């Protein structure tokens, strides 16, 4: 009985066993707060149409950032904790080379894509935006890679400091531009992103450590990375399509103003995504480390604590959001959206569904079944696009949020039904 009384609470156990979770959450609060402050400044300075153009650029950056996570960052989080210390120098060299290559390829793709987009009617602004957008992608790719490297090897305090530097520089640059210019444009906003990412890259490189590219090590580790990446890449492409296609469809049919409004709402409700965004960065490492040391039982216990902690944080975040909503929407962002609006409440539901899927995907990845997530995400993507197209005419912008919810719910149900069971994994 005394042992039962002394048993720690699940959330306390999670924090004790994974101390990096606290600093990761702090870093995510900084990142989400920085993105929210950026959105507030830009909406006020540019209006919804200008913010809609910036949002199109930002969505393109996020798509490529998600691809980086699939090809490199998630494999890094799953493989890195299992390596011996003698292999870390070669691992850093290989990972850095891959990050540079992926960043360069993505930037060239963005530059060419926006140069072509500029030929379409109403998109002449895309031509001057192509260069700063490509540079923002390259610097952002390196910054994200260096930050994830710190998280994987349990240096979350340094990663949080990197977040502070990046977003403080970005927000400061935007504030200076707003004060010094009569009109703010998406091009100037992209240059501010470049400046913030540059500061983050400099900080991350200073803490990166020794790195040597060894062909023999690359050949031995390459098949493991590819085995993960070949499933993670289509999964991420599908997740990106599932989450962004409804917004892009609504923006194309209803106009830049509709896209700007949906993105503004999404940015504000990102407060609810803080637990997911923070713990999704370390959940693969927690799962891989728990499974390697304690087996399936340890993996289940770690993910149970993860679930309890994230749901508790979500409840606190939702209460704070609803309490502050009149100030956030009307006074700060100058958009007229009631606290009980369908879009706001639906975005709350969407964030909860995405959060509840996190332990399922971490469990499946730790047990070596990434193909399960790919198939479930494909089903969710079909649901997302189908619901958006079916409901856009009668419901307008609300249909885009319903499409995102349908996609997230379909992917969660598919993952739960097909996730490997304990007996299969043992």
TrEMBL record:
The lineage of its organism: Bacteria, Pseudomonadati, Pseudomonadota, Alphaproteobacteria, Rhodobacterales. It comes from the Bacteria. This is Oligosaccharide flippase family protein. It is found in: Cell membrane. It is a multi-pass membrane protein. It comes from Sedimentimonas flavescens. Its main location: membrane. InterPro entries: Poly_Biosynth_Transport. The chain crosses the membrane at residues 21-45, 51-73, 94-117, 123-143, 164-183, 189-209, 303-324, 344-360, 372-392, 398-419. Keywords: Cell membrane, Membrane, Transmembrane, Transmembrane helix.
């Amino acid at each position: 009985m005394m042992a039962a009384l002394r048993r720690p609470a699940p959330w306390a156990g999670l924090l004790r066993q994974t101390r990096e979770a606290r600093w990761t959450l702090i870093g995510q609060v900084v990142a989400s707060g920085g993105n929210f402050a950026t959105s507030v400044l830009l909406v006020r300075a540019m209006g919804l149409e200008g913010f809609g153009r910036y949002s199109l650029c930002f969505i393109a950056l996020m798509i490529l950032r998600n691809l980086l996570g699939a090809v490199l960052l998630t494999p890094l989080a799953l493989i890195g904790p299992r390596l011996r210390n003698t292999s870390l120098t070669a691992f850093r060299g290989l990972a850095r080379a891959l990050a540079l290559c992926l960043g360069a390829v993505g930037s060239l793709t963005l530059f060419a894509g926006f140069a072509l987009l500029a030929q379409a009617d109403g998109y002449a602004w895309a031509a001057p935006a192509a260069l700063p957008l490509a540079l923002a992608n390259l610097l952002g790719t390196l910054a994200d890679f260096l930050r994830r490297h710190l998280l994987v090897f349990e240096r979350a305090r340094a990663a949080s400091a990197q977040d502070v530097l990046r977003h403080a520089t970005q927000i400061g640059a935007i504030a200076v531009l707003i004060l010094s210019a009569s009109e703010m444009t998406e091009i100037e906003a992209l240059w501010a992103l470049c400046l913030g990412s540059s500061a983050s890259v400099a900080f991350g490189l200073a803490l990166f450590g020794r790195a040597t590219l060894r062909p023999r090590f690359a050949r031995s580790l390459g098949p493991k990375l590819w085995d993960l990446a070949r499933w993670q890449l289509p999964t991420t492409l599908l997740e990106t399509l599932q989450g962004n296609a409804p917004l892009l469809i609504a923006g194309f049919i209803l106009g830049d103003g509709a896209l700007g409004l949906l993105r503004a709402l999404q940015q504000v409700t990102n407060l609810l995504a803080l637990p997911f965004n923070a713990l999704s960065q370390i959940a693969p490492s927690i799962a891989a480390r728990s499974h390697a040391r304690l087996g399936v039982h340890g993996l289940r216990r770690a993910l149970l604590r993860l679930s309890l902690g994230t749901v508790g944080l979500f409840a606190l975040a939702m209460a704070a959001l609803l309490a502050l909503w009149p100030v956030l929407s009307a006074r700060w962002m100058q958009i007229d959206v009631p606290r009980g609006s369908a879009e706001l409440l639906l975005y709350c539901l969407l964030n909860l569904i995405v959060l509840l899927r996190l332990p399922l995907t971490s469990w499946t990845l730790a047990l070596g079944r990434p193909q399960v997530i790919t198939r479930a995400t494909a089903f969710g993507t079909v649901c997302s696009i189908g619901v958006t197209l079916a409901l856009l005419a009668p419901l307008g912008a609300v249909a885009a949020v319903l499409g995102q919810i349908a996609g997230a719910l379909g992917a969660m149900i598919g993952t739960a039904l097909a996730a490997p069971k304990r007996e299969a994994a043992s």
